[in-house]
Amino acid sequence: MKTSMKMNEEKAKNRNAWEKMWKEEKCINEKDYIIENKKVSGQLGITYEVWKKLYTKRGKTISKMESEIGTLRQENARLMAKITGLEADKMEMEQKHEAEKMELKQELNAKIDKLHKTMADFSFKIDKLNAEIVELENIS
Question: Which keywords are on file for this protein (predicted)?
Fold first, then answer.
């Protein structure tokens, strides 16, 4: 079993090797190094082979992500144009709806007025018939 001092020396050696490689390659920043390092080994130093795999994967991933971002931007532009068209259609439909609503309201008011006149005519006729009934009762 290694002593803790030897383990610390080994970690420092690995870290120094990594920092040298990191400074030479300049392909990822220190924050990425720490994140990737924790994901891979959980220690301060990682091997060159692991680092190379990470870098290659990262390059492919970034390229793929950029491609997906481009596709998403195109889709977003298409959807925004569609939304603009739909909003224009919505406004047009709302205007038509308001016009139809006003027309129906006018028709309804005309029917109500006609019913009031008919009701007034019937009330007048009923009053006239009641007056005749009273007159006929007085004659008999």
Answer: Coiled coil
CB 18 within 8 A of CB 32: no
Q: Contact, 49 vs 21, CB < 8 A?
A: no
Q: Which residue has the tokens 């018939």?
A: 129
The CA R_g of the chain, rounded to the nearest whole Å, is 44
Q: What is the pLDDT of residues 101-128, one digit of tens each?
A: 999 999 999 999 999 999 999 999 999 9
Angle at 68 between CA 72 and CA 22, to 5 degrees: 135
Model-level pTM greater than 0.85? no
Extract long-range pairs of 8-16: CB within 8 Å, 24+ residues apart.
11/43, 11/44, 11/45, 13/45, 14/43, 14/44, 14/45, 14/46, 15/44, 15/45
